[in-house]
Amino acid sequence: MKNINKTFTLIIVLLSFMACSQTTMKSIGDAKKLEINKKDFVGKPLSYLLQNIDVEIKSIIPFPNKNLKEINRLSLLFVNKEIYKKSTSKISTKPTRITIVFNQNWEFQGEKCTYEKPGCTELTKEDEKNLGQLIISDIYVSGKN
């Protein structure tokens, strides 16, 4: 009977630990986990999400731009902008893209960031610091991975 109690207790502890474990993205294949577990990130700052992505972010698509007061969405890409631009127009066959939505600037005011503008598609440490305080309102993942 003691062994059954010990086993049962161990199972409960392990299940509790697994249920409370933090959602992290260790590979591109884990991107959907972030969307499935978006409740772990919605209402929290962007910096918290970025700390939980262990895959190199090679380029970004800010919309309309990287201005703290104007940005509405930020897409994270795990390929460089040249590869992403060359991919097909079908969203389901494009490389994986994580889009983070912030609850601001729904009028999309501000100059639009484009691939041609220097620094527009790079996520610098300064960008992480400036934008890190923005509160996430939604996350969705698109692409083939």
UniProtKB/TrEMBL annotation:
Species for this entry: Halpernia humi
Protein name as it appears in the record: Lipoprotein
Signal sequence range: 1-21
Taxonomic superkingdom: Bacteria
Lineage: Bacteria, Pseudomonadati, Bacteroidota, Flavobacteriia, Flavobacteriales
Keywords: Signal
